[in-house]
Request: fold
Amino acid sequence: MADHSEHPASFWTAASLLPPLIAAALFAVFTTFLPAVAAGETLRYAWGWIPALGVDFSFVIDGLSLTFSLLISGIGIAVMLFSGRYLAGHPQHGRFSLYLVSFMLAMLGLVLADNLLVLFVFWELTTITSFLLIGFSHGSEVSRRAALQALLVTGAGGLAMLAGFLLIGAETGTFELSALREMGDVLRDSPLYIPILILVLCGAFTKSAQFPFHFWLPNAMAAPTPVSAFLHSATMVKGGVYLLARMHPNLAGTNTWLWTLVIFGAFTTVFASIVALRQNDLKQTLAYTTLMALGALVLFLAAPGGYAVTAAATFLVVHSLYKAALFLTIGCVDHATGTRDARRLGGLARRMPLTALAGGLAALSMAGMVPFIGFIGKELLYKGGLESPASPIIVTGAIFAASALMFAVAGVVALRPFWGSDGKMPLLDRPIREAPLPMLAGPLVLGVLGLYFGLSPHGLQVHVTDPIVGAILGDPDMAKELYLWAGFNLALILSILTFATGVAIYVFQDRIRERIVAAESRLMNFDALWDRLLAAIGTGARVVTDLLQPGIASRYLMAVFTTITLLIGSAILIRGLDIGTVGLSGVDGVHVVVFGLTIAGTLLAVVTNSRIAAITGLGVTGTGVALVFIMFGAPDVAITQILVEMLIVVLFSVAALKLPTLPQRLPFFHRRAHAAVSIALGAIVAGVVIAVTSVPLDLRLTEFFEANSYPEAHGRNIVNVILVDFRAFDTFGEISVVAIAAISAYALLRQRKTKGSQ
Amino acid sequence: METLLAMTLGCLVAAGVYLMLAGDLLRFLFGLTLISNAVNLAIFTSGRITVGGTPPLVPDGAYEPAGDVANALPQALILTAIVIGFGLFAFALVLTLKAYGLLGTIDIDKMRLSEAKPDEDKA
Reply:
């Protein structure tokens, strides 16, 4: 990106200025809803979309969606201002701005949607825009791989979530979240509760990168820094958390929900904060701390307690503020020095004082220092953990470990690059100087907000956390107050212990890092597993394709017949086949002779190697069938059958002059599979016909033809009348088919050998 | 009676499928003919068998057939089916002739112009 800093004038372009203006306008609109939402109102707007399916474009503004909207548009202003300068002069800057604004609108749609299917559409739109943004540097293979990985992981999760939504719709009859909220325990008591829960959690956990789906998020740092700040820390990855909060009234409250979220959230948060400490690339460090925050949010949406949900709501805001600011700060550092490697940076505060200030403010909030909002957030996390119905030890322990590590990581991110001795930074052709104002404004304001909300949390509580708790738990009175000084209690003692541990970790960070690196090599690498999974899918597809499409006609035939056999056979096995009474009544000697003749001719055709014998066998069978028609009152059919049989024999004989003799049959030994499928299919057809004849027959059509044949059509041969009068058009079509077959056959026979043929 | 017919046509189907799977075009055509016959018999049987076999005719002077006659509807359907089946057979036979003339084989597994083996792509 360093190349573009030499064109400051190009900041004044539409691509740079329009996005922050759009974001600011949206932010201004959303602030007008604050008083109403703070007063406990829920506003709903709906337009018909697919009324036949009960799908409306419906949007709802309550505490939860308004907070998310304000975060999205507010941080959007900071990020877009930053990227307008960061990418100024980039040849594809316009495209980038388009993606970024599209993402913002999709994300707003996601959090405002009241209809599950509308939510799904916006959900996938954020996945797609995220794909485009991660892969923005499409010349880089790393970016392309990361983009595809994020798309596949979150896209697959989104599809699972859609299946869950459809089950919810089938179970409750509505897709409207506002209607679902009124339904109470309908879903919790449903036999489909577990499948619905699993599917919805698949969507939420992939989007919010919970272990074991976490691996895509650190890779997504291949995107330009503003994207990482916006999508992959402050907003999009919180989509999964948003979904959990939204579904809380309908799905939470069971032990399954509680323990699933506690286990996944606690593991993700501790695991991620340990790995964060080990990273050298500051963006990677921040990516893992984002995972930590997402894990903590999931952890605190597990329990329905007032402290837990207040803690989740507060921490949501806290994290978005400091994380976006830190990402943008790192972006400034990268922009100025050309590196993000923690080992090479140092002493930047002298040359970039404002950047250092912004990073310092955000890091203090992240470390949970007094008097920042991060401190209040951490206190609430401890209180929520201590009252957790799952296991206070697990939850509080996880938060303690993660907070202490966060404290140390905050030092790594904001202390080391700016203070101490000068680092070994790459030599650039220009001096390291302060970042330009558009890039600095966002992180500075966000950092100051972290301090402001810490000093005066009441506004945040009234406008944000109380309404969120109201939206999630249905009762804003369950929300806890936000205090900077809540008295001397267990949470405060834990905070002090956290600071002590955090300082210790920071001091010994190099030694700890070595240990982590050593341990890491012995653990499963999910990123590599992913590559193997993709390769396995490719191999599997190739195997299936080779099996089903070998280019060998006899295997295609076998596949077709096997499929038919299996389909009808399994239907019979599942539903049973009522073959009624197997009656042999009315069978006499003549019948047996005719049937015997038919089967004998067939057998001859099967076993012989002689063309003449085979044609004779077919002739015998055809004649046998004609005799059947005669015996049972179908003389017209019999006449046609005999004529056709004769023609077939004649045509075969003529053609035989130009065709080779029959190839040697394969020994039966090699054709056992063929024989098995043939016999099974024959048996199935026989069984089905027997079953058909054992149910009563609806004779209304036949009776109609019998009654009207003479009076209406003046014909005494009913079969003929049907053919040439009642169904004359069918017969006309039949004649056409035969005529076309004849013309085509003639054309084929006349055609000279084409050029290039053997 | 229907049971016996069903079993007979089951034999025809089995033999037809077995022949079609044999891997050469001539036996494929034999199998096709057998299956056509079997399907016609299946339609016929599904319309029920009238033992004794009075054809569906309206006697002189009457407006409706007298007494129990064979079901006319399946017969009409089979008549159509036989003729169409014959058209199909004739066309398939001509295609077989043509294929043999062009490719010099009636072994269907050796007819690989449209889906060549990977190593034969350039051939």
Summary: Chain B touches chain A through 95 residues (CB under 8 Å).
